[in-house]
Design a protein that fits this description.
The chain is an alpha/beta fold. Helix content is 45%, strand content 13%. The site of pyridoxal-5'-phosphate (PLP) has 14 residues, from helix 5.
Length: 429
């Protein structure tokens, strides 16, 4: 970062500090990852200098020879990896990808059906605070109270009652596999377009370790930066019959010029994902999540749905007498980063909910395996005990978190992550 440090030491210092943080903390945020040096190089390239509104062979600006080749290469790789008929890689991120699908498939005021945010769905699937819930008449389904699994009967009932134009499945905080066939059947029975949003688990799908909705539903959206381990971005896959509606919705419907440097980074990530190494990585993401779930359950933690079948788990902290926010903040002080999250039927408000969400994609990229999951579970238990200890004051608790954070740093120093250049003592690797 020599040029950056000269031109703008202020920004340079912030990036350096964040680099250190990403090295020395255990990152369990289920949507985060570490991209490779190759993805960082492509994403930081001179492709950021080019404007290319439109699509290959039909752009609004000249000088597109290389950009057209690059975008088409990226599209080919998505098609090969996911078996998609048509692909659009221009959405700026997952949220605009979903917005574009709504623009393509529904008119404002139409009815849409999606999974409630409080039960693990995403904001953009019709939450009232999001534009998807403001412009469309949104109805929401959830999970069953006893099993924590999606209430497919409720989905079916709501679909017949409200005749939605669009039905969203896919999630941000649901530890189980979605039955895409069931959603497709419900969609057919009411002539709704079924959209599967695989933002969180598209890397698992690419590796062949999670059911692939692409051949099953009408449209599939995804982010590119979660388990897929690419740069921040979005993409849409669909049947040929929807191709022109989707493309027109992305541009000119919603966006202007695509972020070519990000498309290049995505192309690189897709090449990486089509490899035995990546498939082994995805396998380990699942094995680590299962190991972490098992170790926490053994320690008496309550997991939503009783466990996990994917890369994430939801832990209800209420049996420990803690809120999710208290737990997430205490864990961060101990060097373990996660987010507070609602659990289904949460009696607490969304911004101060009962649960935490834990995911294994980032720690698996840096090489953690089952034995590290065991250590993490033990630290999580220690943090919960410290936080709940009424006899200790705030400073005493801080001191005990700091001791754990030092042990976390020592572990992290043995697992350098791609793209990170500083050890926990600040020295370059
Ligand atoms: C993360 C996520 C998104 C949104 O992605 P952004 O890149 O944050 O806009 C959309 N849908 C689901 C299910 C997600 O998990």
């Amino acid at each position: 970062m020599a040029d950056l440090m000269t031109t703008d030491p202020e920004v340079g210092a912030i990036i350096r500090a964040e680099n250190r943080r990403q090295h020395r903390k255990i990152r369990l945020i289920a949507s985060e990852n570490y991209v490779s040096e190759a993805v960082l190089e492509a994403t930081g390239s001179i492709l950021t200098n080019k404007y290319s509104e439109g699509y290959a062979g039909a752009r609004c600006y000249e000088g597109q020879r290389e950009i057209d080749r690059m975008e088409q290469l990226c599209i080919q790789r998505v098609k090969a990896l996911f078996g998609a008929e048509h692909v659009n890689v221009q959405p700026y991120s997952g949220s605009p990808a979903n917005q574009a699908v709504m623009i393509a498939m529904a008119k404002p005021g139409d009815c849409i059906l999606g999974m409630s945010l409080a039960h693990g769905g995403h904001l953009t699937h019709g939450a009232p605070v999001s534009i998807s819930g403001m412009l469309y008449r949104s109805h929401q389904y959830g999970v069953c109270r006893d099993t924590g699994l999606i209430d497919y009967d409720q989905v079916e009932k709501l679909a017949h009652e409200h005749q939605p134009r669009l039905i969203f499945c896919g999630h941000s905080a649901y530890p189980r596999i979605v039955d895409f066939e069931r959603f497709a059947a419900i969609g057919r029975s009411v002539q709704a377009v079924v959209v599967a949003d695989i933002a969180h688990f598209s890397g698992l799908v690419a590796a062949g370790l999670h059911p692939n909705p692409v051949p099953v539903v009408d449209v599939v959206t995804s982010t590119t930066h979660k388990t897929l381990r690419g740069p921040r971005g979005g993409m849409i896959m669909c049947r040929q019959e929807h191709a022109s509606a989707i493309d027109r919705a992305v541009f000119p419907g919603l966006q202007g010029g695509p972020h070519n440097h990000v498309t290049a980074g995505l192309a690189v990530a897709l090449k990486e994902a089509d490899s035995a190494e990546f498939r082994a990585y995805a396998r380990q993401v699942l094995d680590n999540a299962a190991a972490l779930a098992e170790a926490l359950t053994r320690r008496g933690f309550r997991l939503s749905s009783g466990g996990t079948e994917n890369h994430l788990l939801l832990v209800d902290m209420s049996p420990r007498g803690l809120s999710g926010k208290q737990m997430a903040k205490s864990l961060d002080a101990a060097g373990i980063v996660c987010n507070f999250n609602s659990v289904p039927f949460d009696p607490r408000p969304p911004l101060n909910p009962s649960g935490i969400r834990l995911g294994t994609p980032a720690v698996t990229t840096r090489g953690f395996r089952e034995s590290e999951m065991e250590k993490i579970a033990a630290w999580i238990e220690q943090v919960a005990d410290i936080r709940a200890d009424q006899s200790a004051d705030r400073d005493q608790r801080r001191e005990r978190y700091r001791e754990i954070a030092a042990a976390v740093r020592a572990l992290c120093d043995g697992f350098p992550a791609p793209g990170l250049r500083y050890r926990s003592n600040g020295k370059p690797v």
